[in-house]
Design a protein that fits this description.
Order of helices and strands: HEHEHHEHEHEHHEHEHEHH
Number of strands: 8
CATH superfamily: Aldolase class I
Bound molecules: ligand LLZGTKA7
Oligomer: single chain
Structural class: alpha/beta
Distance between the termini: 10 Å
CATH architecture: Alpha-Beta Barrel
Number of domains: 1
Length: 245
């Protein structure tokens, strides 16, 4: 079981959705025994600044820089190049930016990392946000068809552009795995243990369901960080994951 707990720890990404470096470092120290990767999203990055990545890495964990770049290829490439210099282990962009943007981002990140002698971060594309349900997708966003088909198409686009994987709901993990293969990274937010509330997340699964579906990484924020005792919550989630590994 100890081996399975270790494997589960490597797959758990904690979303540090807080406003200061101090809070982020304190959470990282507390949760590092249970999670191998910590996610710096827009709230933390824009509040605390780029240096926060270094402070989190100093705790001996990996960092997923979740800034979801989406613009014209040149702009994204220049931004991705700047981010690659921060030492993050995973960087992401939006698949909706299209092949030229995806390729420009991946090339810029890999070249910059090589120049600095850093390991190349995984470059990942966000498909359809986990907060979007079928009604919003069709009626508000004006997109036709099923979410699952769009996710599948964007996952293939991402793979063909040479990126390392996607962000999607764990509900789409099986179909992505089928078409993109075993090596393709599938990062899944929208994780809700049975004892937590879904809130703004719409396409959700439990930690055990997401692992069973084949997700590479599970992103968990509020079900851990929003509780009175984040370490206990993280331990429970780790246990749920390990039981099906
Ligand atoms: O489709 C997406 C892409 C990114 N996220 C991010 O993951 C975490 C989830 O946090 P919870 O508190 O567990 O809901 C959050 O930082 C999002 O920005 C996502 O949820 N869905």
């Amino acid at each position: 079981m100890e081996n399975k707990i270790q494997r589960a720890r490597e797959k758990l990404i904690v979303a540090l959705d807080v406003a200061s470096t101090e809070e982020a470092v304190a959470l990282t120290r507390q949760l590092a025994p249970y999670a191998g990767v910590f996610k710096v999203g827009m709230q933390l990055f824009y509040s605390a600044g780029p240096e926060v990545v270094r402070h989190i890495k100093e705790q001996g964990v990996k960092v997923f820089l979740d800034l979801k770049l989406h613009d014209i290829p040149n702009t994204v490439a220049q931004a991705a190049k700047a981010l690659a210099g921060l030492g993050a282990d995973i960087i992401n962009v939006h698949a909706a930016g299209g092949t030229a943007m995806l390729q420009a981002a991946a090339q810029a990140v890999r070249e910059r990392a090589a120049t600095l002698g850093l390991p190349a971060p995984l470059v990942i594309a966000v498909t359809v946000l986990t907060s979007i349900d079928q009604r919003t997708f069709n009626q508000e966003m004006g997109l036709t068809g099923e979410i699952e088909d769009r996710v599948k198409a964007w996952a293939l686009l991402t793979r063909d552009a040479g990126l390392d994987g996607v962000v999607a709901s764990p509900r789409e993990t099986s179909v992505i795995r089928q078409v993109c293969g075993e090596e393709f990274a599938i990062i899944t937010p929208g994780i809700r243990p049975a004892w937590s509330v879904s809130g703004d997340q719409k396409r959700i699964m439990t930690p055990a369901q997401a692992i069973s579906a084949g997700s590479t990484y599970l992103v968990v924020g509020r079900p851990i960080t929003g509780t009175d005792n984040p370490a206990v919550a993280a331990q429970k989630i780790l246990q749920e994951m390990a039981e099906v590994l």
